[in-house]
Design a protein that fits this description.
With about 375 residues, this protein is mainly α. The chain is built from ten helices and two strands, in the order ααααααβααααβ. Helix 1 crosses helix 4 and helix 7 packs antiparallel against helix 10.
């Protein structure tokens, strides 16, 4: 009989062990701080801790992508079959020697693996949160296990897209979906934290409430366009502002918006022309004006609403940050700090709008009674 090659599961279990170690510190702190809290209070605290670390993970994911470290370890879940770059030192050295500025270097391998360690730690926290809600659901009527369970399924899908990001060699559609699922996880956690808070919803004028939902939808569209710009490396395709390559409306080529294609290539297998990259950039830049206008209006109106003033201030401040970092990415040649902050600002906007929508509702329209006409 011939030899049977078995898949090496050692890196999987080792990565899980590292994830447990990463999650142990926040879990230990949470258990100590919330030892006398109510079930809902404990779940809310754990959800907020997970939200904070997930936000950090999104920022580090942007840092991984922007430093071209997404293929620092070209296999998954380990690094050349090892749980750390230490065990893959010879393979990484050989790849770095062959291509010193290529995708595989010792520094990029560590960045990629740290990102995976943090992601595994967040997964452990979400698994703990889902398990606790099932355990506490009978002790507290206000605890529902379904939202955390859905979040657990969501983060598993997010992990699958993370694996495909590596195995499919930075396929633009997969990388963009990986980003969208990561930011979507922030919205799910924020909504759950509000539910555990138990505070009543605040009435908002119907026009403002609809505006918040419109801004929320437009923000997601803009994040998808921004992810498409980043994953196609089209940030510098329009290196001037407010024009694009000296034109107010550049020549448009829609091949760049073909979803299912390899990085740098058109659907027919030919190299993607530069004009397609500038088209991707220009569409994202043009949509930004509409999104900023809606969010600034929402932020200004929220400042006048009881209990939502801070949400309005956050929206206005984050809108300013997004404009400044987006402009810096163009005129300063895509500096790393501005690029990471641009992703972080978008993620923070999603958290802020999710919070505002979760604690508010459209106020009921009431019509004043009609006074009877006086007798003639």
């Amino acid at each position: 009989m011939g030899e049977v090659d078995l898949y090496n599961l050692a890196p999987v279990f080792q990565l899980m062990a590292v994830g447990l170690a990463v999650a142990a510190v926040p879990l230990g702190w949470w258990l100590w701080q919330q030892r006398s809290a109510t079930p809902s209070g404990r779940l809310r605290a754990l959800t907020l801790i997970t939200l904070f670390l997930t936000f950090d993970l999104v920022l580090f994911g942007a840092f991984t992508r922007l430093t071209d470290s997404g293929l620092g370890c070209p296999d998954w879940p380990g690094c050349y079959g090892s749980a750390t770059p230490i065990g893959a030192k010879s393979e990484i050295s050989a790849a770095q020697t062959a291509m010193p500025t290529g995708p595989v270097t010792h520094g990029k391998a560590w960045i990629e693996m740290v990102h995976r360690y943090l992601a595994t730690g967040v997964g452990v926290l979400i698994l703990t949160l889902a398990s606790m809600t099932w355990w506490l659901r009978r002790a507290s009527r206000g605890v529902s296990p379904w939202w955390p369970t859905f979040t657990l399924v969501w983060v598993c899908l997010q992990g699958a897209f993370g694996a495909l990001t590596v195995t499919m060699k930075l396929f633009p559609a997969i990388v963009t979906l990986h980003l969208m699922f990561g930011i979507g996880l922030l919205a799910l956690l924020m909504a759950q934290a509000v539910r555990y808070d138990g505070a009543g919803s605040r009435p908002l004028p119907a026009a403002l409430y609809r505006g918040l939902w419109a801004g929320f939808a437009l923000l997601w569209l803009q994040i998808a366009l921004g992810g498409w710009v980043s994953t196609n490396y089209a940030v510098l395709a329009c290196p001037d502002f407010p024009t694009c390559n000296g034109q107010w409306v550049p020549e448009m080529n829609w091949q760049g918006f073909s979803v299912w294609r390899e990085l740098g290539y058109a659907p027919d297998g030919q190299l993607l022309p530069f004009v397609a990259l500038s088209s991707i950039h220009f569409v994202h830049r043009s949509a930004a004006w509409l999104v900023l206008a809606v969010l600034v209006w929402c932020g200004w109106r929220l400042r006048l609403q009881p209990g939502l003033r801070s949400a309005g201030q956050w929206l206005l401040g984050l809108s300013a940050l997004q404009f400044a970092t987006g402009l810096s990415n163009v005129v300063l040649g895509w500096p790393l700090l501005a690029a990471v902050l641009h992703t972080g600002g978008a993620a923070a906007m999603v958290i802020t709008l999710t919070w505002a929508l979760s604690i508010s509702r459209a106020e009921a329209f009431s019509r004043s009674p009609i006074s009877p006409r006086p007798a003639a």
